[in-house]
Amino acid sequence: VHDILEQLEEHQVQATFFLSGEWAERHPDIVEKIAEGEHEIGMLGYRYKSYLDQEVEDVRSDLIKAAEVFEKLGYEEIQLLRTPSGHFDQEIIDLAEQMNYQVVHWNVNPNDWENPGTDVIVDHVMKGTGNGDIILMHASDSAKQTAEALKTILPGLKNKDFQFVSVTELI
Q1: Closest Cα to residue 101, out of 167, 34, 37, 55?
Q2: C-alpha span between 80 and 41 (Å, rounded)
Q3: Interatomic CA distance for residues 31 and 118, integer angstroms
Q4: Is residue 133 scored above 90 in pLDDT?
């Protein structure tokens, strides 16, 4: 995560980080660094388990538990929700809205977590990104090529006259 935060800072880009409550509990120091960098924080629920594989009441419990974790860490106003694996249906959207969350999905996904090669990640993002797109990238330990790809992607998209904004600003 730190090398990705460094790239974002170097290129003066604000990102939106979607974090699971379980991860945030284990890494409060990194959550703080994300917030200090003035990046937006959204939620991935508590446990990273598909919401379509759970009963709606279990999903509600997962969201409540996640909200409690973020509140304890001092982040009480989280309103953005990216569902685990991007799995959702109308029932999940309705539940999220009842709980004052807005479900967010992406439309550019270079699958950087699979480590397909820096050039593959860069090419996918540079060729596939248009106005208003949400690019999904991962800041996890398993995504070993993301920071290197950002060294090209961030200035490359700026050179194409794209501006980086938070998801809230985009909405």
Answers
A1: 167
A2: 8
A3: 26
A4: yes
- In sequence order, what DSSP letters do the residues of 19-68 get, joined into one string? E-HHHHHH-HHHHHHHHHTT-EEEE--SS---GGGS-HHHHHHHHHHHHH
Give me 161's structure tokens: 């006259």
The 3-state DSSP class for residue 147 equals helix
In which band, very low, low, confident or very high, does the pLDDT at 1 lie, cut at 50, 70 and 90?
confident
CB-based contacts of 161, cutoff 8 Å, min separation 6: none
End-to-end CA distance of the chain: 25
Distance separating alpha carbons of residues 168 and 166, to the nearest angstrom = 5
Contacts of 24 (CB under 8 A, 6+ apart): 31, 69, 70, 73
Rounded distance between C-alpha atoms, residue 132 and residue 116, angstroms? 25
**Sheet with strand 80-81: strands edge to edge:** 16-19, 40-43, 80-81, 102-103
Tens of pLDDT, residue by residue over 38-57, are 999 999 999 999 999 999 99
